[in-house]
Design a protein that fits this description.
11 helices; single chain; OB fold (Dihydrolipoamide Acetyltransferase, E2P); 13 strands
């Protein structure tokens, strides 16, 4: 039995703009204005009993100040329920999110069938969702294999705009609403590029599909994948680590299902996959993909601290090479650094002779094994002795 919405406060909270956007997105056609612009007719062609189409017409308020606002909205919900054969509660949910891309992470596990999960796991689950959204936003700004602690400002700003929705039926579901600007075509000024908010949703959808495919290929060895190909698809070490942790949480076998619903107020171009599903069996494979992406990535503005262990500069060379035993990912590694004459003479030689720790910055790049190279090294200084 479909529920009917009769609560006055719930009806009053429905936005006329959202309701109109929903109707347009569902194929209803706007008609004439009524009451000096306070309402508008909307029509729908319905297949008749004899095969002849019949027109359904509604009077939909444009302004909440209309005296019969509640009655008109309730009539609209009744008509939509009859035509769509869906609960008014489901229709209301879609109306409220018509201006947002909605992403739903569903935890599928026997222990979550009652719609609950342990508190500690729930806290971690929300953190993993946040990290996946942030990773997708970073990749939308600029595809990279790994994003260090300093994230792009545009991605951080996007994360602050995303909204957490109510949980829904079906195991345990975390819902995130991504507000998307509505399509506003103006002849001669149409922007063919999607707004950043929509591109983040598409990036995440594409990245998860590609990650699932890459994990499957890693199992079957169908073909080797290249790190650059993965990052171009929006896959980063950050995204892999978050998904791997999400899949490994809890006990026993579980699946993670991510569903995408796109804002009705802005049509989506193409046919992006609406769902991506991962089983817990893929967790170690996805974690390893993330590890490779992280280790082979060039890290910008990397701060290196360590001791100079080897020096190499010919008698006629201006540039010298120093090998620094430095801290990378909580472990010490050999890092090769090219150093200009001034820093080499004033800092590197002294630090090597006195066994003083130094600090510098640059772009960190893995060479092979446990050896790294710091490109464009700068900001050299010796650290104070303890």
């Amino acid at each position: 039995m479909n529920a009917t919405i009769t609560d006055g406060q719930t009806i009053d909270a429905i936005s006329p703009v959202a309701l109109a956007s929903y109707l347009r997105g569902r194929g209803w056609h706007p008609g004439r204005e009524i009451g000096g612009g306070l309402a508008r007719t909307w029509s729908w062609m319905l297949d008749g009993m004899g095969g002849e189409p019949e027109s359904v017409e509604l009077v939909v308020p444009v302004d909440r100040e209309v005296r019969d606002f509640r009655r008109r909205v309730m009539e609209t919900l009744d008509a939509l329920q009859s035509i769509e054969q869906r609960s008014q509660l489901d229709i209301l949910r879609d109306i409220q999110s018509v201006s947002s891309d909605v992403i739903r992470w569903r935890w599928i596990q026997a222990s979550a069938e009652d719609g609950t999960i342990p508190l500690e796991q729930g806290q971690e689950f929300f953190a993993y969702v946040r990290n996946q959204i942030l990773a997708a936003a970073c990749s939308t700004v600029e595809p990279r294999q790994f994003f260090a602690s300093r994230k792009p400002a545009r991605a951080v700003q996007f994360l602050q705009q995303a909204r957490l929705g109510q949980s829904e039926r079906g195991s345990y579901v975390v819902t995130v609403h991504n507000p998307v600007p509505p399509a506003m075509p103006v002849t001669g000024f149409e922007d063919e590029r999607d707004p950043f908010e929509r591109r983040v949703t598409l990036t995440l959808s594409n990245a998860l599909q590609s990650l699932r495919r890459a994990a499957g290929e890693a199992i079957s060895s169908a073909r080797p994948w290249r790190e650059r190909e993965l990052s171009d698809d929006g896959i980063s070490a950050n995204l892999c680590e978050s998904m791997a942790n999400m899949l490994a949480a809890g006990e026993g076998r579980r699946d993670i299902e991510v569903r995408f619903s796109f804002a009705g107020s802005r049509p989506v171009v193409g046919q992006p996959a609406p769902i991506a599903r991962f089983s817990s069996d893929l967790s170690p494979i996805i974690r390893e993909i993330g590890k490779v992406l992280r280790e082979t990535a060039t890290r910008e503005d990397f701060e290196l601290r360590g001791f100079v262990t080897h020096l190499n500069r010919g008698p006629h060379d201006v540039i010298g090479t120093a090998t620094i035993q430095g801290l990378v990912d909580e472990d010490y590694h050999r890092v090769e650094v090219e150093v200009g004459a001034d820093e080499y003479d004033k800092i590197i030689l002294t630090a090597h002779g006195d066994r003083r720790m130094i600090q510098c910055e640059g772009e960190l790049q893995k060479v092979k094994g446990r050896t790294y190279r710091l490109l464009h090294a700068r900001s050299f200084r010796m650290l104070a002795e303890d």
